[in-house]
Amino acid sequence: MDRFLGWCQSRGLELRQVTSFVVGDYVEHHLLDKDGHPLSAPTKKQHLAGLRHFFDNQQMYHGVGINPASSVRGPKYSSHEGKTPAFDNRQVRQLLDSVGDGDVVAIRDKTLLMILAYTAARAGAVARLRTLDYFTDGRAWSFHFGEKGGKLHHVPARHDLQIQMERYLKAAGLEGRSDKTPLFRTAKKRKRELTERGLNGNDLLRIVKRRLVDAGLPPGAFCCHSFRATTATNLLKQKVAREQVQYLLGHSDARTTDLYNRTEKEVTRNIVERISL
After folding, report:
1. Cα 126 to Cα 2, 33, 113, 191, distances in angstroms
2. What whole-number distance in Å separates Cα of residue 184 and Cα of residue 168?
3. pTM here?
4. What is the per-residue pLDDT across 226-255, written as a single tens digit (0 to 9) for each?
5. Spatial distance between the Cα atoms of 28 and 45, rounded to a whole number of angstroms
């Protein structure tokens, strides 16, 4: 919003003077990157959604009479497949097998990778886990992830992940804890010990990138979100109902789940390999 407000200020516009034409002109012609090139259609749509939300709040508190962004149409954009690269199933196995159990940092890293692969949770939700978010109902252990929009998402821990969690909790000295203590912490450089500070999403991304290098996989090709795409594709290829995959991913719209399906890319690759020119 600072960007839009600065643009308005440079033109001597007050909020009450902003019209739908002004918002449309800003989105269409003045959203540029640092090199002066127009931003992509999805990015423009995100900016427009932010403007709508901003003016909704202004209207609620009588800052403006109407929301000038509500009637502005964003640029057309359609995608049948997300851009996040997915792993091959063998690459996930290679990545997990490359992490040993020599010390608490290695055990932490392997546990994090397994959670990303076997729960399809977002990196930020995994990093924010507290000890109380891993719990049991007396029959099985589960995770409570704080997802986008303040939603809580419940995902059971499969058997091998539960065993890995027991190993990690013991190594980290967190056995029996069920409070707001961070479940996963940063590590002291060179000491191979954990600190008291919890991870954030960027910390988790750095861990994933480092482990990709150690496994001999290209770190620039994959990210934390790649696990979600891989898990979704794996389940859909096994003919798991889309509604169940949608629930696991925590999507409110099934069309979003479809973007994580990479089976069409595999079909296309098989077709082009059969061209006999």
Report:
1. 30, 31, 10, 24
2. 9
3. 0.68
4. 998 888 888 888 888 888 888 888 777 777
5. 10
